Amino acid sequence: MDMRARVNTALKQAMKDKAANRLATLRLINAAIKDREIAQRCDGEEAVVSDGDVLAILGKMVKQRQESARVYEEGGRLDLAERELSEVGVIEEFLPKPLCEDEVAAAISEAVASTGACSIRDMGKVMGELKSKHTGQMDFGKVGPLVKKRLCAG
To answer: What is the DSSP string of 116-142?
Structure first.
């Protein structure tokens, strides 16, 4: 089942269960997917949102909500922070299991080997390879410096 179908199935189930908070979050996910579809149509591309696009959207949504929760906690608004974190929980149900540090290191090694990267100039190739295979499984903001370190050392 593709990502969009999984979200729609969960949306229907949330309606049946009358789970208002879950339903609201699932509707936000659907809206973000439709926004991407509309943006692609405006760019003249075919309006098909792939599973990789959906994973990228979900990853971005999680980051946004984590940042908002952090800001709310700093501002003493624990009620709003809790709501943001509950939304993160719903969104993360659709993301693949994050890779541990050893798995990330192995994925970097595999990407470096498969792209034939040998210098920092090849970093874009390696990151592209990682993004194509591991979207939603790793934080590319943290992986970038690891790839850079590996390419500078190797």
So the answer is: T--SGGGHHHHHHHHHHHHTTTS-HHH
